[in-house]
Amino acid sequence: MNNWRGKLQPYLLLAPMLLILIGIFAAGIILGLLQSFGYFKVIGLTDFTLKYYREVLTDSAFLSSLRFSLYTATVSSIIAVVLGILLAYSILQMKGNKDTVEYLYRIPIAVPHIVAALLVYNIFSQTGILPRVLFEIGLIHSQDQFPSFLYEANGVGIIAAYIWKETPFVALTTYTVLKHVSKKLSDAAYNLGANKKQVFFYVLLPLIMPSVLSSFIIIFAFSFGAYELPLLLGPTQPKALPVQAFIEYSNPVLGNRPYAMVYNMLITLIAVILTWLYYKAFEKVMKYTR
């Protein structure tokens, strides 16, 4: 009996706060779901319908926003994963004291995304630091010759900001796993004639792949659902899906609210799918930490 009390006590102590947090979250999801199906009693909508889902899913603006969000999230996440793995492996191969390097590469993780947007703007805009440096050394004759990376449909500015923010996160999670991989595995491969490249691709990479996969899912989900960077650095058209959802929600005509809720429910559905994938990847990660 005492054992049961000891096990339940932490949950009982957390219960009041958890009920509030879960209650607020669940209420928001339920109200949003009801409104997305056309039930919005405040303005007299009481009939459930799939009309709003049909209209949104066939709307060119939604499809453009979806493609743009998938594109920026996929490209930035893939590049961040590759660079993060290389950074983690480079730190692992360093000799001597690594404390300073381990501290410095984590700095971007703590920087807010709004600050990251400001940094990208100040460096890559046509009046930013990089064009001015290129102009001073004579590589360009005017700052207007510098290519426009911001507010473009190719999303380069958004992707650059995400890469700067996400690469250290991938490196952090990957490096943690690499540090705990037994050196005997690499030594055995070297004794059998493998070189550094072969050891990395055939010994270390398979071991860290579950951690890499989980990191990819996390940064992809965040990039796909984030609002700040696409708003501050993105093009007028197409807009990222979260930005388009906010615009729909901000419409002063309350009759437009079901469309906004459809956007939010679709984003939530994608987030749930990614959470499930992360859970599966986490199960694989745990196999290597036991």
From TrEMBL:
The keyword Transcription does not apply. Pfam families: BPD_transp_1. The keyword Transmembrane helix applies. Keywords: Membrane, Transmembrane, Transmembrane helix, Transport. SUPFAM superfamilies: MetI-like (SSF161098). It is a multi-pass membrane protein. InterPro entries: MetI-like, MetI-like_sf, Sugar_ABC_transporter. One of its GO terms (cellular component) is plasma membrane. It comes from the Bacteria. The chain crosses the membrane at residues 12-34, 68-91, 103-124, 156-178, 199-224, 260-279. It is found in: Cell membrane; Membrane. Its main location: membrane. Residues 66-278 form the ABC transmembrane type-1 domain. One of its GO terms (biological process) is transmembrane transport. Belongs to the binding-protein-dependent transport system permease family. PANTHER family: GLUCOSE IMPORT SYSTEM PERMEASE PROTEIN GLCT (PTHR43759:SF1), TREHALOSE TRANSPORT SYSTEM PERMEASE PROTEIN SUGA (PTHR43759). This is Putative spermidine/putrescine transport system permease protein. It comes from Bacillus benzoevorans.
